[in-house]
Amino acid sequence: MEAKVRILITGGGTGGHVFPGIAIAQELLKRPEVEVLYVGKNNGPESKWVKEKGLSFEGIQASGFPRGLTLRLFTFWLDLMKGFRQAGELLKKFEPRVVFSTGGYVSVPVSVVAAWKGIPVFLFEPNVRPGLAARVLALVSTKVFTGFEKTAQTFARAKSVWVGIPVRVEILDAVKEKALGEWGLDRNKTTILLLGGSQGAHALNQYMAGAIQFLAEGDQAVQFLMMTGLADYQKVADQMEKCPLKVILRPFFTNIQDAYAAADLVVARAGAITCAELLSRGLPSILIPYPHASGHQEANARALENAGAAVVILEKELEDGTLSEKLAGLLNEPETIKSMGLKAKTAFKERASAVIAEDLFQSAQIRKIA
After folding, report:
1. What is the pLDDT of residues 49-82, one digit of tens each?
2. What is the structure's pLDDT at 200?
3. What is the spatial distance between Cα 183 and Cα 162, in angstroms, rounded to a whole number?
4. Which residue ranges does the chain devote to CATH 3.40.50.2000?
5. Which CATH architecture describes the domain 170-347?
6. Tens digits of per-residue pLDDT, 163-208?
7. Domain 5-165+350-369 - what CATH class?
């Protein structure tokens, strides 16, 4: 029997570094001759997310670079050295022909050791503004794939290519009518979805709760799905107890694909993966970037705003009534919502997963011949 084409994927810490890797693994495994191993952080959230998709997972020691002079500065270097050793052992055992890195600190030892061993490293940067890990790993990478066109200009022209952001198949394939039925939502009402991130977002929860109460005083045919995070869930539930509008609350969505499919308008942070998922579903949005992410999220949000697919409100602009007025204005202009949705769909690069997977596979095949 011919040996499998082995491809290693690494990245972790946040959904932005994990979900593109899962999407590429799903695309690669359409080829029966391919074997994929995902390497992330021991006990990191990626372990759960990757295994839930039936993918092979191995963990290594890793931690982010600390800010300031703390004890973590000492443990960081210990973790890094241990991560390098474990990465070397995994690469020797699995023997991948190529490595696909989605960034984040956990991908650094795997990618660096792979490059040192002569294994081609393909890097993916989903944000408009590259993070520190991506800027470092670009130096040892054969090629850099970017999620946004502007980002490709920040890397060496000879090795960077704009492909868009890979989106998981379950999000692409979710069906609206089925999703509405799953949630018990009215097909004749506008569904607004709030996404504060997997841990929720306190400011978004509070202003959205106020906006719902404001809209309840009007006559718009509207209903809501809210992912509050665990910390704010009970407080928001208490606020919504007497609301006459239908409001479905969850600390987090295990079936995020059905939430997207049911939605007509989304209020969310502006992580790169959230932005890609909104575009993939053709969903208009109000984006409120997380203000403490070195400007990454605002840059992502502005890219969607410039495409006509989103309205951006900075968190510091979220005074009482700002979100309420914006939502009410959009609900009174259904043609604007429709136009934003069409522009979102137009801005989405549909073949990102296929393009990256094909490039990885072809490079692995070339190494086999060599």
Report:
1. 999 999 999 999 877 666 656 666 667 778 889 9
2. 56
3. 36
4. 5-165+350-369, 170-347
5. 3-Layer(aba) Sandwich (3.40)
6. 999 999 999 999 999 999 999 999 999 999 999 765 557 888 989 9
7. alpha beta
